[in-house]
Amino acid sequence: MNKKREGNLEPPTRHPINWKDKDYYNEDSLNNELERVFDICHGCRRCVSLCISFPTLFDLIDGSETFEVDGVKKSDYKKVVDECYLCDLCYMTKCPYVPPHEWNVDFPHLMLRAKALQFKKGNVKRSHKVLTTPRKVGAVASIPVITSIVNWSNNNALIRKFTGKLLDIHEDAVIPKYNSKTLTKRFSDEANDSKFKVAIFGTCYGEYNDPDSVLDLIDVLRHNGVEVKLVKKAQCCGMPKLELGDLEEVTNYANENIGPLKELVESGYKLMAPIPSCVLMFKSELPLIMSDNDDIRKISESFYDPFEYLSFLKKNGQLKTNFGSVNKEVLYQMACHQRVQNIGMHTKNILSLIPDLDMNIANRCSGHDGTYGVRKDTHEYAVKIGKPVANKITEDTDLVISDCVMAGNHIAHIATQDIQAIHPITLVKMSYGI
């Protein structure tokens, strides 16, 4: 006899995303499922502190005539959906009703379904479509003459007001600088006949905005005897389009990436990306979106988070642990899209090997999450969500670090102190003295 349990005692599992099924875009079917899940969330409320989606939902319910979900207008469901940026924390860290529990609650993927319907109906701003094409924007913004103009205008308050109206970007949001000397231009092959082989998927952000962090990662890997290649002709991982609900474009991007990634895997390379969101796409999301694609599954199994791979090297006796002293106090924000990979605290464990490094940990969301942190309609919420992390910065804090550099920059930007944010791999490079 099956015993019904209030909460889930089993490891969470996920079902394939059946986005090609006609019922996936059936609005009545979707609204019925939204009402069912919202009613469960209303009775639980454990996720109220995670993001704005849940307070928005609970305020709608508490302000209704019935004080129940049935008193909320279906048209107001969109308010909840629009505040979800698919961090997955509710699914992985809070919700007791995720599958295999019989209630089968997957709040983020239900929000994705609602976003996909909105996109299919054309209820998406043109500016949001532009913001979710970072590779196209980066390719233009990294043209040498244009780079200087773009970086200057992004730091000019008057022009920011104009571009804010044009692209729907909040004038106070931190905008990453662009580099004309992109990662691809700065990367150089280096012969190394090693059994440890890694191919770096540079990501849009690493290619155009922050090649230095990726190069630091490459230096650390090579210092430990790893042969490193850069994935060439890579397309965006698709995470920005996923957050938009454009599943067709997500799969188009994936199909462009399959060829070069599959070839590297078959040649014995492990795959890696410096941004947790990109790793998550290949490890978790794409295998669920393209569940019938064996190539994506093989690519997924070969993808590593950078510090997960350093732990792999340590386990195999390949990691050099003669770290030098780094006498600094750092605030380490654990990136959401790294936490939900369920791989363990590899960054913290490796950084703990560095002598004299004083590490304070913020186990909360930064609120940034790509376009959410810069858009006019959501930036203030991103600040509100990130403030508890920024408030942990004291006058003794030397650096903010996060595996998601965008999250780190956002935290540093909203802090009351003037402070720098860096990728934790840069600390490892500093400790090695390379």
Task: Please characterize this protein's 3D structure.
- The structure is a single chain.
- The chain has 434 residues and is α/β, with parallel strands linked by helices.
- The chain has a domain at 22-120.
- It has 22 helices and eight strands.
- α14 (247-266) packs across α16, α15 packs antiparallel against α16 (294-301) and α20 packs across α21.
- It is globular, with a radius of gyration of 22 Å.
- 43% of the residues are buried.
- The mean pLDDT is 93.
Please give the structural blueprint:
Layout: H1 27-44, H2 53-62, H3 77-82, H4 89-94, H5 107-120, H6 126-131, H7 134-141, H8 144-154, H9 157-167, H10 183-186, E1 197-200, H11 204-208, H12 211-223, E2 227-230, H13 239-244, H14 247-266, E3 270-272, H15 276-289, H16 294-301, E4 303-304, H17 306-315, E5 329-333, H18 336-339, H19 346-351, E6 358-362, H20 379-390, E7 399-402, H21 405-414, E8 420-422, H22 424-432
Parallel strand pairs: 1-2, 1-3, 3-4, 5-6, 5-7, 7-8
Helix pairs in contact: 1-5, 12-22, 14-16, 15-16, 20-21
Describe the sheet with the most strands. 4 strands, parallel
How many beta-strand elements? 8
Report helical residue fraction: 40-55%
Poorly predicted residue ranges: none
Please provide the ordered H/E string of secondary-structure elements: HHHHHHHHHHEHHEHHEHHEHEHHEHEHEH
Shape label: globular
The percentage of residues in β strands lies in: 5-15%
Class computed from helices, strands and strand pairing:
alpha/beta
Q: What is the number of helices?
A: 22
What is the CA–CA distance across the termini? 62 Å
> What is the alpha-carbon Rg in Å?
22 Å
List the strand order in the largest sheet. Answer: 2-1-3-4
Oligomer: single chain
| Mean pLDDT across every amino acid position | 93
